[in-house]
Amino acid sequence: MPVLPCRPNTFLYHNELYQFLSHCQQNCAADSSQIVSISLEVESVDPLVVLQEIAQPNQLSFYFENKSNQQAIAAIDAVAQLQTCGVKRFSQAQKFVSSCLDKIIKVGTSNEVSTGPHFFCSFSFFNETSQIDYPFPAATIFLPRWQISRCGDRCILVANFLIDNETNLSKLYQDWCQKIRTINLLKFQSNSTNNYNSISRSQHIKNIKNFKQSITSSLKLIESNYFQKIVLAHPLDVSVDRPFDLFQSLENLRNIHPGCYIFAISNGKGQNFIGASPERLISINNQQLSTDALAGSAPRGKTLAEDTKLANCLLSSEKERYEHCVVLDFITQCLYQLGIVPQVLSPRLRQLSNIQHLWTPIQATLPTNVHPLEIVAALHPTPAVAGVSRDVACTKIQDYERFERGLYAAPLGWLDDQGNCEFIVGIRSALIDRDRARLYAGAGIVAGSNPDREIAEIQLKLQALLKALV
């Protein structure tokens, strides 16, 4: 993948970009194409505002934000994409990324994480989706046409252009210039519309009695050593009297849950999968891998004294600590099997606005021969969202749950051309379809679990998400 240094403003004001694109087109064989990836630093702007302004309803898009680290990225439209399913979907995604990188010429960029082309990925929980009309494939990987990222006060616009003998370079170049002008005009805008009008809504939690029976049945199987843990999820269906405002919901999520990853994935057909996940699957920065064991939870208190009491109960709970250790052991064993030596940091609490978790960060130096998607494939699903033993628990999940998990509790994220990546687990999430939404939440069932308490935990998670959406 060639990298050509340049001064972006030279391209912008002296038309050298057009000349370079013309040169690339002339070098294309009759049946071949190239992808030119151009990076340009622009005025500081909110990527969510850019997404709202330039994304079209019929385009794939992806939004990903970690507010606590002052990082956000928006991806709009696809210049190349793969949609697939089955047990080989992660390896197929890896091959797709490699084939695209072979075609890419990078211009005006460095090897910093925020620059250069990124690939955006969403995988379903299971290898196949069982619901025929579920709106997202079991795996989607795309290279966006437009990518805007912000890290602190620095913003980078990346445009990826597919060039072949039939490409209209004049139109492509005009589109590039227009996008830069549009983005520069957005620098003073905020996404918040302050649209907090009350929306009449209906809520329907289906089959709560059956869900309680599933928990009770699971506890009997745990007692008989059929498995050690299972994570059962439950949906909340919501309908409103007008279409959901996607961007206002995202604005609400990042304000209410500043310590979580905020995400939104659009399939280009009117459906969006959004949420605020506290759970990172993996992140890689310059060959340094970070991941988390996040399991075991308790609500936050209404007063400092109550909050401290709940935190101490969580830290001392044999049941919650066992659930956490199961996840920690699974992750470290998976890493060792890939030839990665993990460094386990001290356990601590991860305290969010409405809930707190037992949390152990894990770090490692990544061998050069291990691809990020290999790690994602090995770790998914972790015991935090599936159970132990994993395969047995997943089979029972399909028996118990009468709805499609789809992207719920599945890997979502991005990877770049340098091997950097950030993947999260799509929990605390919702599938939005115009004026209807299905919200998802789950609870880990282990020996000692109380069905009523597990249901209360799920209700807590669902109501926190509902508050942001409407």
TrEMBL record:
Q: Which InterPro entries match?
A: ADC_synthase, Chorismate_C, IsoChor_synthase
User: What Pfam family does this protein match (any one)?
Assistant: Chorismate_bind
Q: Which GO terms describe its molecular function?
A: isochorismate synthase activity
Q: Which reaction does it catalyse?
A: chorismate = isochorismate
Which parts of the sequence belong to the Chorismate-utilising enzyme C-terminal domain?
209-461
Keyword field: Isomerase
Q: What is its EC number?
A: 5.4.4.2
What the record says about family reads:
Belongs to the isochorismate synthase family.
UniProt-recorded name of the protein: isochorismate synthase
